[in-house]
Write a structure and sequence with these properties.
Blueprint (H helix, E strand, L loop, with lengths): L17 H9 L17
């Protein structure tokens, strides 16, 4: 699930980091992005 700018709304790993917990307590915006490694099939 993403917002209108493409940022993930939930932590995809299911385990919150210390920084994420602190940011939520402070009411800060959390920007999440998930990258996926792809295989180069041209070789």
């Amino acid at each position: 699930r993403c917002d209108n700018e493409g940022w993930l709304l939930d932590n995809p790993m299911g385990i919150r980091t210390e920084r994420e917990v602190h940011a939520e307590l402070e009411g800060a915006t959390i920007y999440r992005r998930m990258y996926q490694k792809t295989r180069d099939v041209s070789h």
